[in-house]
Structures are given as C-alpha cells and as structure tokens.
Write a structure and sequence with these properties.
Elements: H1 17-24, H2 28-36, E1 44-46, E2 49-51, H3 54-68, H4 73-80, H5 87-101, E3 107-110, H6 111-117, H7 124-133, E4 137-141, E5 144-147, H8 150-163, H9 167-202, H10 210-261, H11 272-284, H12 296-310
Antiparallel strand pairs: 1-2, 3-5, 4-5
Length: about 300
C-alpha cells in the first residue's frame, strides 16, 4: 500500500515495446529493427525488461516523417547520430533540404503519355530504364510513373522540338548534363560542409546555432545558381565566338578553294584532303582570324596543308 502524498511516476510515463508499437502504429519487429540500426535511443532497462517513453514515440514519428521526405534509413541514422535532443531541428533542416533541392510537386503520368512525349519506336523500355536510373521518373506500377524532375523532362522535350533531335539523343544529353551537375553539386556541398556544418558538428550541434546553419543552407542554392549561370554565360560566349569563328573561316576558305581548284559546289564536294588545303587558305588570308584555341592537331594539319599548297 502506498503512502498518501508520496510522489509516484505517472502510470504511462514508461511502457514496454508493445505499447510503443501501438502508439506509433508500427510493428514490434520494425521497432526492434530501428533499434538495431540506431534509429531509436536505448530503452530504460528494469528487471531485464526494456521500457520506453514519449521521447521514443517522438523519435519514431521523426523517422517516419524523414522517410516521407524521401530519406533512406541509413541516411536518417547518420543524421540522428549524436544529435541529442535536436529532433525538431533535424526535421526542419531535412525539410529545408528537400524544399530547396527537390521538385516541390512531382507529377503522375502514364506510360503511354511518356511514350507520346518522347517517341522512340522500339526503344521505349530502354528510355524508361535510363530515365529511372537518372532519377527523372519513379515507377509506381506497370503503367504509371511519377515524374521526379518535371523541369528536366520539359527541357528534353524543348530540345527535341527546337533542335530537331530524337528522344535517345535528348536522353544522352541529359546523361551528360547529370555528370556535370554532380560535379557542381559536390563542389558546393563540400564547401558547405567545410565552412558551416563541420564547425557546427564539432561544437556539439548547439541548439542556438541551428538557425544559422539552416540559413546558410538556404543561401547555398542561390549562391550556386548565381555562380553557375554566370560562368555558363562566360563559357558559352567564349565557345560561341570560337566555334562560329572557326565555322565561318572554314566556309570562307572552302568557297575560295572551290573556285581556285574547279571543285563542284555543294555540301559534299569537299574531300578531307582539300579541306586541309582550305585550312591553309584560312591561315594565309589576313581578313580571317583563326581562334586562338586551335589544338595541336589542328595546327599540325594547317602547317601540313600550307606545305602542300606551296609545293
């Protein structure tokens, strides 16, 4: 019999794993798997029985929320490792990550709709598989897919329409862009980790620093986009000037060479040998300036063509 007025723990302050399963809607087996993967704090052990609390309920709900945000369990375990009582901050941080660097409203499309938008008779299954590997779509069932990157798919359609390329060539372009984008992503994430996250983690993830850490992440996208688009403008301008300077030089030299040697006019009339002679004409023409970024092979071809023309 208890003494009146004595302080006693609330009846539901701690409870066995079966009650934790009931409160969270999870199975006992799943909860034990969470424990083995260090997703849950260790229970309080009394008489060889593990007892759980509302903290464990909150942690299970956090794991479920993070999974719903698209994070895998291994990633969640790393995020939760050594976070102390910062579960709410972790959830907010993860949502910021997903909102900044993910499509906000993935769209549901049918297989026939994708085939209509990206026609490639005989290669439909191949294209869908490549799109899945690139993270552009996710298969929901045999006839339904979720578009994970609608903007990329729209850009592919625009390339097919405006440039006249087929679906397989457009997909190849996306694959090449993905490799470059991965390099840029790695560059900026390493910068963020070194400058912001590691000092924060080394300090023990103080609660008062979470807002600054999140603000820095929010600004990271803007900084990266500004720098990337600015550098794209610089490099594209240089490439356009160099490429079309070379193309106009080639066309001008081809026209002069055709008149001097009695070649037939037309796009297929220039052989590889005469093309070298045309390059020599380009080099000799003071009105045409070759781009300064000729490769060693181009320069060697021009020198050889010059000697042939002199002979």
């Amino acid at each position: 019999m208890s003494t009146p007025g004595a302080s006693e723990p609330a009846a539901d302050a701690s409870f066995p794993i079966e009650e934790l399963a009931r409160r969270t809607g999870m199975t006992v087996r799943t909860l034990r798997a969470y424990q083995s993967r260090k997703l849950l704090p260790a229970p309080e052990v009394r008489a060889r029985m593990g007892y759980y609390s509302e903290r464990h309920v909150s942690r299970v709900e956090l794991v479920k929320d993070l999974q719903a945000e698209g994070f895998k369990l291994d990633t969640i375990a790393r995020m939760l490792d050594n976070t102390g009582d910062s579960d709410a901050e972790i959830l907010q941080f993860s949502r910021t990550v997903k909102s900044l660097f993910g499509e906000t409203e993935p769209q549901i499309v049918t297989l026939s709709e994708l085939a209509e938008r990206f026609p490639s008779p005989g290669h439909e299954a191949e294209l869908i598989g490549r799109a899945e590997r690139l993270g552009l779509v996710r298969k929901l069932d045999d006839q339904t897919y979720e578009e994970l990157a609608p903007r990329v798919l729209r850009a592919g359609q625009d390339a097919m329409t405006s440039l006249g390329v087929d679906a397989r060539r457009a997909m190849k372009l996306v694959e090449q862009l993905r490799r470059h984008a991965e390099g840029v992503s790695k560059l900026y994430l390493e910068l963020y980790l070194e400058a912001v996250w590691k000092p924060f983690a080394d300090a023990g993830q103080p609660d008062e620093q979470w807002p600054a850490v999140q603000t820095a992440l929010e600004r990271l996208r803007g900084v990266a986009e500004m720098a990337l688009l600015g550098m794209f403008d610089v490099t594209m301008a240089e490439r356009v000037d160099e490429t079309f300077g070379r193309e106009f030089s080639r066309m001008h030299g081809s026209s002069k060479g055709g008149k001097g040697r009695g070649h037939k006019s037309g796009p297929h009339a220039t052989s590889s040998k005469s093309a070298k002679g045309d390059n020599a004409g380009e080099a000799a023409d003071p009105l045409v300036e070759l781009p300064p970024s000729l490769t060693d092979t181009d320069e060697a071809d021009a020198d050889e063509a010059g000697r042939s023309a002199t002979a």
